[in-house]
Specification:
Length: 499
């Protein structure tokens, strides 16, 4: 039996319908600038198909939680769950065939990527006996599958991008039908967008997005200008589930509403006098005890682990502790470096954020019973940059290396490790590290990023790059008069020692 979902009306006034079974098999991509009606289109699709198929909505703004009142969707607030808990929730959702809305409104952007990746991973990894059809709607898909690096960590971005790729590329055999919406096609990863066979293209103004939309719809480039003329709620539709030729559709009405503020004008109340306005706005704040916070802030994981590492029984805490001798302090530093060396031996350690490495470091310190006070995250970052630079322990404690560390502190935290790697090479008169080695020290696989780092540090007055014969280069550290030997920038990646 064919299930037809009426999405709206065509330009001629005829109903525009999706073949639901075909849509689930071929997936859907919706594109349009802010205000073009993407969320309205998704809401119409969800409402019309709710009686026929299980639905999962990944909602970064909390716009679709109203589906719970009308259609019985379960709202899962991601802020109340860990990544592991969300993965279990997703597995139960598939087994019990419950329609849900994953509300990511109350978490930061990077946490949104991690939690959404865990939830989508749970949907994807469920056992074969639970592979029932599910429509998975992801709003603002460019957040979870960006075409380029963003301000979030590489680890979170890779996790979310991998989950979205699994959904769109491999999800069909597992019963997962991806429906993704984005404001800009240029910001959406191409391997994710390319897996959709149905398209709904709304109003857009940027030339690059109009050109990509025209290409996806099989239209000529000169016809791309029409996307600027589309009204709010109008889309050009194409795909095996709706039309074999580009079809202009006006989306129909919806039963549920969004909580987001609309563009309608709301006149302000009658103007108060200046004295009344001052009293209302600039009055003394309420006592903190009488104000209820919207949501209790959570302590970050590194702080919690640091507290665990420092925890001691009360009886021992009451006893006076004698100050450690220089020999004991040196032994403590040696053991910390040994633990850090084990952390950095993991294959993906160079590309993991410092905060993640810090958690692993604290756990390993507890396992190996490393006594003494636990170092905080700033001290750990300094220890990490020195270790990644491959400096021997006796050199790290010398006065010359202290000058290099002092110079590095004027640079951003993520650049200090690269500067210290160059400082080590200059101090030991070794060849200038290759671009691949610098990229690894930065925690990236991008050779271009390593070159931009050198340019950035030269602009900041931290070093001078010299071109040598044969295409080689050397680096001079400003203020230290240290210079590396000439090295090949295109050479292989060198695995520096960690002591």
């Amino acid at each position: 039996m064919t299930i037809a979902i009426e999405i709206g009306l065509t330009a001629s006034g005829n109903p525009a319908e999706f073949d639901l079974e075909e849509l689930l098999s071929t997936r859907l991509l919706v594109q349009g600038n802010s205000g073009s009606g993407k969320s309205h289109l998704l809401r119409r699709l969800l409402e019309q198909s709710a009686p026929w198929v299980q639905q999962v909505v990944v909602d970064p703004e909390g716009d679709f939680t109203s589906l719970a009142d009308r259609f019985g969707h379960l709202v899962v607030d991601a802020a109340d769950h860990t990544e592991a808990a969300l993965q279990v929730v997703a597995e139960r959702v598939r087994r019990h065939r419950v329609s849900v809305v994953l509300n990511l409104e109350h978490v930061e952007v990077e946490a949104q990527l991690r939690l959404a990746a865990a939830f989508l991973g749970g949907l994807f990894d469920v056992d074969r006996d639970a592979w029932n059809p599910v429509m998975v709607v992801v709003d603002e898909a460019q957040l979870f599958a960006p075409a380029a690096a963003s301000e979030t960590s590489d680890e979170a971005r890779r996790a979310a991008l991998g989950a979205m790729t699994n959904l769109m590329c491999r999800g069909r055999k597992r019963g997962l039908a991806g429906v993704i919406a984005t404001q800009r096609l240029a910001k959406l990863a191409k391997n994710v967008a390319a897996e959709a066979s149905n398209f709904m293209m709304g109003r857009t103004f940027l030339d690059i997005d109009m050109a990509r939309a025209a290409d996806l719809l099989g239209m000529e480039r000169r016809q791309a200008e029409m996307f600027r003329d589309l009204e709010r709620g109008q889309f050009m539709a194409l795909g095996p589930s709706i039309s074999r030729r580009p079809l202009r559709v006006r989306v129909g009405l919806v039963e549920t509403g969004s909580r987001s503020a609309g563009p309608k004008l709301v006149p302000p109340p009658s103007q108060a006098s200046a004295a009344e306005a001052r009293e209302l706005i600039l009055a003394a704040p309420e006592p903190e005890a009488l104000r209820l916070p919207r949501r209790a802030p959570r302590a970050p994981a590194p702080d919690i682990l640091a507290q665990l590492a420092q925890a001691r029984p009360a009886a021992q805490a009451a006893e006076p502790v004698a100050p450690a001798s220089p020999a004991e302090q040196a032994e403590h530093r040696r053991r910390l470096r040994a633990v850090l060396a084990k952390v950095l031996m993991e294959p993906d350690a160079p590309f993991r954020p410092a905060s993640v490495l810090y958690q692993d470091f604290l756990v390993r310190c507890r396992i190996e019973e490393v006594g003494g006070p636990a170092i905080d995250i700033p001290a750990f970052r300094r220890l990490l940059t020195t270790a990644r630079a491959g400096i021997a322990a006796e050199v790290a404690e010398g006065s010359e290396w202290a000058q290099a560390v002092s110079r590095a502190e004027s640079l951003p935290d993520d650049v200090q490790g690269v500067f210290l790697l160059l400082a080590r090479a200059a101090l030991e008169r070794q060849p200038c590290p290759s671009d691949a080695t610098l990229a690894r020290a930065y925690g990236s696989r991008s050779i271009g990023r390593a070159r931009r780092l050198l340019t950035y540090m030269e602009e900041q007055g931290a070093l001078v790059v010299r071109a040598e014969r044969g295409g080689k280069r050397s680096v001079v550290l400003v203020g230290l008069a240290w210079e590396t030997a000439p090295g090949d920038p295109n050479g292989p990646e060198e695995m520096g020692p960690v002591t």
